[in-house]
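Practice set, problem 2.
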Amino acid sequence: MNKKLEALFQQNVKGKVALITGASSGIGLTIAKRIAAAGAHVLLVARTQETLEEVKAEIEQKGGHASIFPCDLTDMNAIDELSKQVMAHVDHVDYLINNAGRSIRRAVHESYDRFHDFERTMQLNYFGAVRLVLNLLPHMIKRKNGQIINISSIGVLANATRFSAYVASKAALDAFSRCLSAEVLKHKISITSIYMPLVRTPMIAPTKIYKYVPTLSPDEAADLIVYAIVKRPKRIATHLGRLASITYAIAPDINNILMSIGFNLFPSSTAAIAEQEKLNLLQRAYARLFPGEHW
């Protein structure tokens, strides 16, 4: 990240309050540390209190300010209680970063008896995020200030195969965000969607082949969130994500063929059938043509 952008980030977040879901690992943990180091008060949300306490201690050891709020974000009543606790603890939230998510890698034809996969993915990735937005948005509107950053997926732009449950939940949040953005513009509230490519986090660890495909590091993913905070755009995507979106808009059949080739090249996950440990040369070449895409 260039020094100018980093300096602007420091200026923007110093003294602000940022609520980050999924803050105990991966992207959420990394951006929480970055925002805290820049002088903001970070509100850490995740399921496990012990892990959150460890993160809080690490941030405070480096001079940062953090508060923890354990919460199961699939429980709507728990989110309501979380929101009350947050607003009793701070008088406002400047940044809401909806990062917590669940990913399921399984083809539709392997999911005939697994409707619960679609339900539980939607519950966390869409309903949980929306419930939190609905609870915190009135306070942002009252202050006429705030930013909501939703971590979406490159799969929404590229129509990633084997991720129908995950991509559908992220696409729902994306559509919600686009509608909301116009409604809150007059209140000086920004809504930013980040179409995140594959990131090397615990979420993708169970899929062994992802050891051999191009991914972002959590630090690189956090850079995209830093950019979002500084520039406040409606959307952020990688070059591949933008190309995939354009391709689908003007030549959907080509997009379909390319995704189908990838679907047939790569194996299903271990949960469905035995998974190969490494990629062959053709698989490696295809993965490099589409860096960060989910296969």
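Problem 2, part (b): a different protein.
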Amino acid sequence: MNILFVCTGNTCRSPMAEALLINKAGDVNVQSAGIFAGSGMPISEGAKRVLKKQGIDIDHQSQPVTPELLEWADLVLTMSEQHKQSLAMQYDQWQDKL
């Protein structure tokens, strides 16, 4: 199964969710992206510290949501209802994955 986590900038919530799921269930394919993300930004220091306390090291580079990522995903999990609504309006052909 391919799971995509989506938040705003892909530097805090969605990469944390990605790292936590990979840590718990290593046999799934997981990525994260942001609705307003730039490419190549690191995870926030606060998020990195929280994950480190859980024994999870992360080397993350932000990426924006793209049609290719939405096509790849079997399930898209958003960090808020607003993220879901934004994706549904912009990418209505993938609403069944949200």
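Answer key, part (b): The beta strands are 2-7, 29-34, 75-78. The longest helix spans residues 13-24.
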